[in-house]
Amino acid sequence: MQMIHHQEQHLKQSISTFFFVMLQLFLNIVIKVVVVGTICGAAFVLTRFLYDSYRLRKFRGPISLPVIGSCWDPGFAELYKHLQILVKRHGKIFQMFSFTRPILVITDPQLVRRILSDHKTFYKGEDYTKYFGFTFGKGLITANGEDHRKGRALLGKYFIRSSVAPFADAVNRIVKHAILEKLDSQLLSIQDRENGFDFNMEEFFAVLALRCFSKFACDYDTSIDPKYEKAICHIVSKGAYGVGLLMMFQLPLWNCIPAVKSVVNANEIIEDFYAKILAHRQQALADGHKFDDMLYAMLSDPTLSDEDRMGHFRTAICAGHDTTAYFMSYCVYLLAKNPEMQQQLYDYLLDKLGDKATITADDTAQLNFLQRVMMESLRLYPIVPNLTRECSVDTHIKDSNFNLTIPKHTTLMFPIFAMNRDPDTWEDPTVFKPSRFENKASSDFTSAKDGYFPFGYGCRICIGNTLAQMEASIILVHLIRAYKFSAVPGFHPKIRGGVSLTTTNGICVHLTPR
Ligand code: HEM
Questions:
Q1: pTM
Q2: DSSP conformation letters of 455-492
Q3: Which of 6, 80, 182, 217 has CB 3.0 to 4.6 Å from 385, enough for a Cys bridge?
């Protein structure tokens, strides 16, 4: 009996010894794999870094370290501003690393123009296809090659001047209603009328631009559900910042990252919005209405999948309202800070239009002074502060000014914000001076010779630029005639430069009825 017990004990001991040895062996293997993996990973990152540094060795730039690149400098937290300092230090073409990503920054106007006009050699890289694509899906902004050509052919006709001009009537109606609903309603007493009130114009313009764009593209009136439209505005703005962060730091698209979460939230709300619009359209079609707008074009193209349609819709809604809203907000902010200029503009508008109730597209094209104010506002606050491209082949550029080779697969960045404040191009670059655009022949807001590209350049130029300009002109005319803007003491917009120049504290001005 005792012997059996002994044997059992022995067996148990052997088994536990076996497991212990196996565990040790397993842990040994795991540790070795982790150590070897780390060494290999580090060697890969280092080799990659050395290789990229070698490829860009001919270009100057800030000191870069493996893994963190040039981001050891705290200035990188506000990249759009920091790039101005880097341009001063390193000249018009320089290299830098955003963590592990090598970037060639180009600010020379002629070179930027040349690159932007060659969309075959310089295509939209991962910034667009991966990061923008994460929120916009497969739309015009993210597409390259044939997909882009097809998308532009499908939607382009709705954005040309002759299609946009008839929409002026609707913009007039929408803005007049919004002024009554959101601004005039704040004036409850005579005292209110005399004292005026502080107001976040960014929130106001976001709702207004969303109403205009939904009406224009889908004949949908978002004002029927004010809470919902406010939520869309908020989430699109937050999502734009989120995408900017992900893109700049090339973060992985993991759900646990707050910036990814904000984009996912934005996507869900926009998908829900699309479903509402589709239901509305189906009902209208059933009621016998006829349409010829962007939504109609998308729905009636049999070659598009549902995913393609969703991509076009998301792209248009996101690109089509927040940009225009911030554009108008900065305009009003600058006018508030420059009261004399504002008074001149007010007098000019009264002189040209009197109290004309409906402003037409032709009217807006004649308002040169207003156009110059808008151009100057986009110079100081370009809503899209940086553009990027990727180079498909080793490209040699040689002319009287340049002789350089851009290596294949290099990411190129054009810091529009820094270019628009470059003292070599602009006299008194930080001063709000609309008269600097007096001699510009074109009214299309692009002065390529000077490197002024607020809407991009070449065949990837903003599809909505005519719409944005007409819409903003009409809205500003009504607003400037109705209210006087003054600066709110101590208020400065806290700009967070993501994909667009959004702010964390809105854009506030003091409004007094005229
Ligand atoms: C003030 C308002 C706006 C500004 C400052 C602006 C700016 C820009 C810029 C700079 C680009 C070029 C991007 C690049 O080359 O990488 C662009 C492209 C684009 N924008 Fe706008 N935009 C505005 C309004 C709009 C509106 C109202 C729409 C309406 C749908 C829109 C839709 C698009 C689309 C679809 C593209 C991509 C075009 C293509 O690649 O073919 N944008 N925008």
A1: 0.91
A2: T--GGGS-TTHHHHHHHHHHHHHHHHHHEEEEPPTT--
A3: 80
